[in-house]
Each structure stands twice: as structure tokens, then as C-alpha cells.
Amino acid sequence: MHRLVGRELEGVDGEDRVVSRRDCFLFLIQEKFEVKKLVNFLKQDAEDDKNLVNQEKYFGCAEIEM
């Protein structure tokens, strides 16, 4: 197990440090992509819900007017 001290990994040599940083960077890119996918899904879901509510309001008003 390595410990992060400041910006350096304690007990890790040069090449290993580069690999560790690269792996961390790739992980963060993947996480950012997943978060963006989730945000887009939630936005679409909220839009779908809003459309459904508006549709139900329209049908409710049409029934009242009959």
C-alpha cells in the first residue's frame, strides 16, 4: 500500500509513480464520463416527467370542460 504525501507517492519509484498517476487520471476521466451520462439521464427523466404532468393537466382540463 502506498501513501500519498503531497503530490508524491511514498515508497513508489519513478516509473511506478507515472503508472499510478496515469491510472488515477484514467479513472477520473471514466468517472467524469459516468457522471455526465447520469446527469443526461436525469435531465431526460425530469423532462419526461414534466411532459407527463402537462399531458395529465391537459386531459384533466378536457374532462372538466365536458
TrEMBL record:
It comes from the Eukaryota. Residues 28-65 form the Stomatal closure-related actin-binding protein coiled-coil domain. This is Stomatal closure-related actin-binding protein coiled-coil domain-containing protein. It comes from Salvia divinorum.
